[in-house]
Each structure stands twice: as structure tokens, then as C-alpha cells.
Amino acid sequence: MKISADILRTYQSVHTWTGITAGLLLFIGFFAGALTMFGSAIDDWATPPDYQLMQVPQGQHDALLRKAFTEHPDTLKNITISFEEGSSPIYWYGRGSARGFSLDDQMWHATLDTQGQLVSELRHVNELSMLIDYLHRSAGIIGEIGHDQAGVYVLGIAAFLYFIALVSGVIFLLPSLVKSFFALRKEKGASRFWLDSHNLVGIASLPFHIIIAITVVVFSFHDLFYDGLSQVYGNKPLFGGDEHHQEVRYDINALPNLSEIQKRVEQYAPGYEIKSINFRGLSGKHPSASVAIVSDDSLMRGPHNDFLFMHPFTLEIDTSSVTNGQGEQGVWGTVVTTFFGLHFGSYGGELGRWLYFIMGLGGAFLFYSGNLIWLEKRRKKQQSAQSKSSKFMANLTVGVCLGSAIGIAGAFALSKWLTLGTWNINVAYMWIYYSLFFAALTGAFTLGAARFSIIGLYVFSALCLIVPLTSLWGLALPNAGIWVPNSLADFGIEAGAIGFALAGMLACKRVKHRVYHGEENSIWYCQKLTSKVSSAHLA
At residue 346, what are phi and psi to the nearest 5 degrees? Predict the structure, then answer.
């Protein structure tokens, strides 16, 4: 396929500058986004075993629910019944809500004791997975615009540039794609190997990256899209359904048993497992029930489950707002559900989550490697030492990328230790992340990209190793207040931390080799460190 050299240069320039402009923000988004695939497992791992109260036997949830209504009238406004093992049977927010990332959420948990009496406890919500999701959606940019984080809109712009980079990258690679797709040419130097790896990861996961780029833009600017579509649809509901609902107050004693609600859900959505039921406004004029349902065989609108909405007293299902494909959402509702499902990877079960996790980390590698490849290529074109602007970009790339990884690793490393104190653990998470992030950024600009890469990778690996070492401490000293993994998911988190530590040490070994033996004037070259190594060899 013959394409003009001028056209190829133009597309390469577009690819380079759009990638560099958006790359650092997207690195944080992709690295944190990969971890969100196991958000539920992270919360379970970070939460002490006694945080959740004892689940009640099947059939006793109704009695528990009625006692909660009597002793805690606020539960009529909002309460969740969970049927999952390892979860409190009922819970409701004492402060805050399930929407958004809040540092001071408090939740009541309740169960029945052996005498059938209500036992309830108020506790802070551990938001470790929400911190990671916050970084995934906003890249950690502080501030708000309207009702959302400012970083969400910034990341939306970055995703649009990212989509342009994807398209332009494919076009300028077309002439050499077939012959060099699987080529990893180590013999032609480290720079060529990095470039081949960058191209391989980018092309192999292209459909995934296109999906993520488009869905991030939609999520970031959905309010603007809805406003634009409303100009076409007028007063007609965009997602189907009737905007007029009958206002009726029901006696709480008329609430059907949970078994009746479960039976109605199973009739409407066969093949789905019911995780929980959330009641809202039971004493008001617009009562509702949101049922969390799960199926690994279909797209789900939520990260971990789908939803079915119904009237809790009449058991009438709101087919216009059902998100599992069984309802009558209309064209736009189906489109939105598809966008959510494709972005969250909430289909295909564990295999789907692992694939999204691997491709998410691959995406982070693309942005990190892309910036460094550009810096090396620029130096060779200029045939001179690195310019001040190149050094600045190298320091910024290493500082931001390693800083975000170190910050997240630090939150995991100290998570169990933080539970030994009385402070707000979520505020502590934020302090840990941003302190480590800005310390890494300062270190990169103070020591330079090459030297700090070695130090930063050692720190990252050490923090990752603290995760399993903390559990070993808890195993050796059972009375120390540190708990040990007690489920396959918990062991998975610990194994993942070990895997990241090994990857960090392997990367550090390669960086040290380039620093000590690489090309002079490369961004990885450090004259002081190279001189020390040479002196040691002479000695």
C-alpha cells in the first residue's frame, strides 16, 4: 500500500503531538482503571473481617428489615438488603451516599443476634477502591466544575486527543504494519525495541483503545450530549417511559416479602443472580426498589452488576429504565447501556475482567513509552545533547508516571496499618497518595529522570512488597490487629502486589543497564552514575 511520504509525516506529527499532550493524564487513568476491574476484591481485602456483620440465614431478612424500620426510621428513606456471603445483611448510609467519592461517608450495618434482636453499628466506609476510581476518572486533578470533578472534563479532552492519536498512528504505520507487526528487534538497540513494543501493544489492542477513547468522551460530556439531544426530542422522554407517575403513599406494612420481590425479578430476568435490593422513599410518594443483578453472559451497565427498577409495593417493573436489555429503554437507552458495559468490561466474568486489566496496563505502557520514544528520536534528529525542554519533558514523564504508581502502592502498603488508628482512613489515603505523588515529581526534577527512575522503581517495588509482608506480620503476631487474607480474592490482591514488585525490580534492572552502559546524551544517561561505575571497575 503506497502512501505519500508527506502524508505519512503529517499523520506521524499528529500522532506524536496528540499522544504527548494527553499521554501523562491517560497513564494515570489507565493504570488506575486497570485496578478498578477488581474494585470489590480491593474493598474486601482492605476491610477488617469484623467490619461486616454476620449474614442471616435465608428467610430471616424480612424480620431483620422490619426491626430496622422500627428502630431506625431513617431506613425508610434508603436501605439495602444484601444476599451475598461476607456482607452485612442490611446496611444504610448514616452520612453521605453511594454516589461519588466522599471522604467522610459513614454507614450503618445491622444483623440479628442469636436471640433475634437487632444489632447495629455505625462505621466509616473504606474508600480505597473509590480512591482508585477517582484517579481513573479524573487523573487526580483537584477541583470541581458544576457537579463533577474538573479532572473528568480534562480527561475527556485528553481522550478525544487520544482517539486522534490512535487513528493517525494506524495510518502512518500501515506501510510497514504487515512486515514489522510482530518484530521486536533487540539487535537494533534499545530505542528500536521500545518502538517495536509500543507499536505491537498499540495495534494488538486497538479495538479496546478505540472503545475506551470514545466511551470516556461520552462519559465526560454526557450532560452536553443530553442537552443537545433534548433539542431534537423536545419534551418527549429521551430514554422512553412516562414522565407522569401516580403519587401514592403506602403503609409500610403493605410492603411485600422479599421472596415475592425475588420471584418477580427471576420471572422477568431469568438467568440473573440477585445480589442486593435497595429501597428508597418507602414512606414518600415515589417509593422505588433498585435490584442489583448479575450475569456474566451479557453487557451490564454497572462495573460489577446490572440494575432492575421496580415499584416495591405493586411489584410493577419500570421497563423503560431496566438496563439489562429486557426492558423498553428505546434506542438511546440501549446505546448508553452498551457504552457503560463496554467501558467497564462488566461482561465475560473473570476472564473479561482479567483481559481488561491486562489491556489497561498495556495502555499505560503505551503512553509512558510513547513520550520516551519521542524524546530519544528528537535527540537523534538534532544530533546533540538533550535540550532543556527535552529534559523537562523526561522529568515530567518519569515523575508523573512513577509518582502515580508509587502513590497508589503507598495507599495499599499502609492500608491495614491505618486501621489501627482512630483517624479517618479515607483522608489518610488522600494524604498518602498526594504526598508520595508530589514527592516523586519533586525527586524527578531534582535528581533527573535517569537517576530518579532507579530510586523510584526501588520505592515502588518496596511498597508493593510491604503488602504481603504486612500479612505475614499479622500471621506471626495474631494479636497485633493486622488480619491475614481469608479468601481467594484476598490472596489474589497479595499475589498481584508481588507481581508488581517483581515487574518494578525487572524494570529497574533494565533502567540501570541503560544508565550505566547506554548512549551518551540519552535521557537515561547519567554522567555522575556512569563515572562512579567506571571508577569502581578501575578500582
Answer: -85, 55
- Taking the CB of residue 142, how many other CB atoms lie within 10 A of it? 10
For 488-529, how does the pLDDT look when each residue is reduced to its tens digit (9 = 90+)? 889 999 999 999 999 999 999 988 887 787 677 677 766 655
Helices (H), 94-189: 128-138, 150-180
Collapse the DSSP code of 207 into the 3-class scheme (helix H, G, I; strand E, B; otherwise coil) and give the result: helix
Q: Which residue has the cell 434506542?
A: 331
Q: Where in the sequence is the domain holding 464, given as residue range(s)?
A: 385-539
**Strands annotated E in 316-386:** none
User: Which of these, 95, 91, 97, 98, lies nearest to 121 by C-alpha position?
Assistant: 91
Judge whether 519 lies within some domain.
Answer: yes
- Number of helices (H), then strands (E), belonging to the chain: the values are 16, 9
Contact 427, 54 (CB under 8 A): no
**Under 8 Å CB-to-CB from 507, ≥6 apart: which residues?**
457
Residues facing residue 308 across a β-bridge: 291
What DSSP string describes 7-56? HHHHHHHHHHHHHHHHHHHHHHHHHHHHHHTTHHHHHHHHS-TTTSPPPP
CA angle 303, 308, 311 (to 5 degrees): 145
Q: How far apart are CA 408 and CA 125, in angstroms?
A: 18
> Which tens digits make up the pLDDT trace of 320-333?
655 555 555 555 55
Q: Which amino acid, one-letter code, is at 436? A: L
Q: Which DSSP helix (H) or strand (E) runs through 396?
A: helix 388-418
Structural domain includes residue 227: yes
Does one domain contain both 401 and 487?
yes
Take residue 317 and report the three cell numbers written for it. 417493573
Nearest in space to 57 (alpha carbons), one of 109, 119, 108, 112: 112
**Which H or E element spans position 58?**
none
Q: Which residues does 180 contact at the CB level (< 8 Å), separation at least 6?
A: 196, 199
Backbone phi, then psi, for 46, in 5-degree steps?
Answer: -85, -5
Q: Are residues 400 and 512 in the same domain?
A: yes
Give per-residue pLDDT as tens, 403-441.
999 999 999 999 999 988 888 888 999 999 999 999 999
| Cα angle 262-279-48, degrees, rounded to a multiple of 5 | 90
Instruction: For residue 377, tell me if it sits in a domain.
Output: yes
pTM for the full predicted model: 0.81
Strands (E) across 164-304 are located at 273-280, 288-294
- Angstrom distance (rounded) from CA 42 to CA 485: 12
